[in-house]
Amino acid sequence: MKAKKKPLVVALGNFDGVHLGHQTILKAMIQYAQKKRWGTAVYTFEPHPAKILAPGSAPLLIQTLDQKITALKKLGIQRVVVEKFNISFSHMPPEKFFEKIVIKKLRARGIWIGYDFTFGFKRKGTTETLKNLCTKYNLLINITKPQFKKDNLVSSTQIRRLITGGNIQLANELLGKPFALIGRVVKGHGIGTKMGIHTANLKVENELLPKVGIYITKTRVGTKTWPSATSVGFNPTFPGKGFSVETHLIGFDGNLRGKKIEVEFLKWLREELTFPNIETLAVQIKKDIHEALRYHR
Q1: Residues 66-78: pLDDT tens digits?
Q2: Same domain, 190 and 284
Q3: What's the pLDDT at 3?
Q4: Is 133 exposed, middle or buried (0-12, 13-18, 19+ CB in 10 A)?
Q5: Which of 85, 147, 91 is nearest to 114 (CA)?
């Protein structure tokens, strides 16, 4: 005999950043599910619907899909359902989406959403539509109110603005965790090696990048983390080298080439500067590393 599947509660949305607003929705849903001994799931899309419907104005995403799934599971979500979003899917009317996805595919017993959730063709489905459909099919529905932190609305849009504007500390407060870039270490231009300061040159997988400058960071290699200082920019002392994200892991001695690492951005340190020569640049980088070390102590 097959074991009877647990009833399921599902949170619907894009959840880019899995920020404090998202966490409020998900923690409430998990708490409810634990009391009822039900299962939990998140239903989300890949790619972001705006990338198909309005590619010219689609947002640069805070997280990669892997980072998002990891963050959701870390919160305690048991199942993440990723729907492939395309033009054909976008033409589904709200009622059909509810019947086909929520009722038949997910077999949900309850729905958790944010206050601004829309769904279906031309985003015609609103929270009111969803309320009516849940009443019709006898489903539980929970709509989370807007969340604020220090008078700032917690939203993916606001967080993106803060990250690209260099206000990484406030962005992190709204995220509820550090903003992080992920990628593999690739061969760089060897400038750090010439100065005796080894850096890992990151081939970034994320779409959204922080403002150009120098940051205090923390770098994860496998299960270990290292205090670090990270440069995001164009190496103006050496024109023509192009854009790069380079991080120096303090106290690390080893070869990172080809390894996947994650760099967490903790504090903006300074603007990117042009130096007259490699020696003065090396002096400044050593000061940056000292500042990063002081921060981590």
Answers
A1: 999 999 999 999 9
A2: yes
A3: 53
A4: buried
A5: 147
Amino acid at 266: L
Distance, CA of 279 to CA of 80 (rounded, Å)? 50
For 104-108, 208-212, 233-237, which range has the lowest pLDDT when averaged over its residues?
233-237
CA-CA-CA-CA dihedral for 278, 283, 288, 291, to nearest 10:
170
> Residue 113: CA atoms inside 13 Å, Cβ hemisphere, count?
21
Helix (H, G, I), strand (E, B) or coil at 267: strand
Q: What is the pTM of this model?
A: 0.94
Round to whole Å and give the CA distance between 292 and 289: 5
Q: What is the mean pLDDT of residues 238-244?
A: 85
Whichever domain contains 235, its CATH number is 2.40.30.30
Closest listed residue to residue 113, CA positions, set 10, 34, 7, 37: 10
166 found inside a domain: no
| Terminal-to-terminal C-alpha distance of the chain | 57
77 is in which domain, residue-wise?
8-153
Confidence of residue 1 (pLDDT cuts 50, 70, 90): very low
